[in-house]
């Protein structure tokens, strides 16, 4: 029998083991939860993997490959089986051919009973087939370029929202740091007021500023949560925890992409498509030659004796040649020419627009660099003033409100620096997009 002290602590030991197992299990569950998204690259990778639009374009590219195979299959011999059992009775007709009900004997001939397999294949059709292949391949190129454009637009929207959320986070961080500094200063000011260095009314004004800063911090937190939620919504993320975003690295400053860029390549592909459409119009007016072959049963009577001797086959060539179609060829030419003029107008406008946007962004980037340098110099001066004001605060040589204004000015310069750097990042990413 166990001693009393072991008997007493046995339930406690079981309880400790149970709690330990629960903690171990919860730790394992926490380890299995995927990490929160914090960087721009993580959001971009998730958006690319979850975007239904990109999946749709990928599926259309695969369908285009199948269309090419279908067009090749259409060029092979096409075999069709047909069957018919049509009776045309003649009821009550006299021997001289008058009266009664039914078709004329030359038309009805008793009926039509057939079971025929026919085959046909166009010949000397290589130019048409080759042009159709090129049209389908150009459609595949358009789909691939459109998918790249969709990926570029997705990256642009995710990046812009990430920078917006990052700026909101910096605003929240700024308010938190200012509130933290004011709270740290609160204890010192209480002691100075109790010592008679400052009046109670001055401290009350400081206290009101602290309460106002608490409200501003809560509002900034809600703004950041909303912008972060919008970013997760665009990327297809399911997590809802409030995390800190990591500052993105600035992209390289690339030169403006020319006519070979993703956005302008579509107009080159449109030019190719219009040229192929014109060739297709010309090919439709060429003579079409096919071989035809059929074999089977065809009879005008249903009696077995007639069906048994009605098997046969036939073969030959079929030629079709357009003669007049109401000037549709010229109208198709005119339609293609109008599409070409529209394509040239769009391409010219986009080229001018991209060049102007690139030059403007370069100017904004240079001005942002100058602004950042100016803010850093002002921030250095403001930091020196805050240090001096902190020393004078202990001796009563500066009012509380004046010191509060110095602190707010210093934190304001810090926030302005963060905003200027974020705007510079936004301009650099926009330049990077124009380089593709």
Automatic annotation (TrEMBL):
Gene3D superfamilies in UniProt: Outer membrane efflux proteins (OEP)
Lineage, opening ranks: Bacteria, Pseudomonadati, Bacteroidota, Cytophagia, Cytophagales
Membrane recorded as keyword: yes
Protein name from the UniProt record: Outer membrane protein TolC
Molecular functions per Gene Ontology: efflux transmembrane transporter activity; porin activity
Keywords: Cell outer membrane, Membrane, Signal, Transmembrane, Transmembrane beta strand
Intracellular or extracellular location(s): Cell outer membrane
Signal peptide (residue range): 1-31
InterPro entries linked: TolC-like
GO cellular component: cell outer membrane; efflux pump complex
């Amino acid at each position: 029998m166990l001693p009393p002290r072991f008997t007493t602590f046995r339930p406690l030991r079981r309880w400790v083991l149970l709690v330990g197992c629960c903690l171990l299990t919860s730790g394992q569950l926490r380890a299995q939860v995927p990490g929160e998204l914090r960087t721009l690259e993580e959001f971009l990778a998730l958006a690319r993997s979850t975007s239904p639009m990109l999946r749709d374009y990928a599926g259309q590219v695969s369908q285009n490959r199948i269309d090419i195979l279908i067009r090749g299959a259409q060029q092979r011999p096409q075999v069709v089986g047909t069957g018919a059992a049509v009776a045309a009775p003649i009821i009550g007709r006299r021997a001289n051919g008058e009266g009664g009900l039914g078709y004329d004997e030359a038309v009805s001939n008793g009926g039509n009973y057939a079971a025929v397999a026919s085959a046909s294949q166009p010949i000397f059709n290589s130019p048409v087939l080759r042009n159709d292949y090129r049209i389908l391949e150009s459609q595949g190129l358009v789909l691939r370029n459109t998918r790249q454009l969709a990926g570029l637009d997705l990256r642009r929207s995710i990046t812009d929202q990430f920078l917006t959320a990052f700026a909101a986070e910096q605003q929240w961080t700024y308010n938190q740091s200012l509130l933290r500094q004011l709270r740290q200063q609160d204890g010192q000011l209480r002691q100075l007021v109790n010592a008679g260095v400052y009046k109670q009314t001055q401290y009350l004004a400081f206290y009101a500023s602290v309460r106002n800063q608490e409200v501003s911090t809560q509002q900034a937190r809600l703004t950041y949560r909303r912008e972060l939620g919008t970013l997760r919504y665009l990327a297809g993320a399911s997590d809802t925890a409030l995390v800190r975003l990591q500052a993105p690295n600035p992209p390289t400053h690339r030169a403006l992409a020319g006519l070979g860029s993703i956005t302008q390549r579509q107009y080159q592909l449109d030019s190719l498509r219009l040229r192929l459409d014109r060739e297709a119009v010309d090919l439709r007016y060429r003579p079409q030659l096919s071989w035809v072959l059929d074999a089977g049963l065809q009879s005008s009577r249903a009696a077995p004796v007639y069906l048994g001797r009605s098997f046969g086959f036939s073969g030959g060539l079929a030629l079709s040649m357009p003669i007049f179609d109401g000037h549709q060829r010229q109208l198709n030419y005119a339609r293609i020419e109008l599409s070409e003029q529209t394509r040239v107008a769009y391409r010219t406008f986009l080229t001018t627009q991209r060049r102007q946007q690139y030059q403007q962004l370069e100017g904004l980037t240079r001005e942002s660099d100058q602004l950042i340098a100016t803010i850093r110099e002002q921030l250095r001066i403001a930091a020196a003033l805050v240090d001096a004001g902190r020393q004078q605060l202990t001796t009563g040589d500066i009012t509380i409100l004046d010191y509060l204004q110095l602190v707010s000015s210093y934190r304001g310069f810090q926030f302005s620096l963060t905003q200027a750097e974020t705007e510079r990042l936004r301009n650099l990413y926009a330049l990077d997009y124009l380089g593709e």
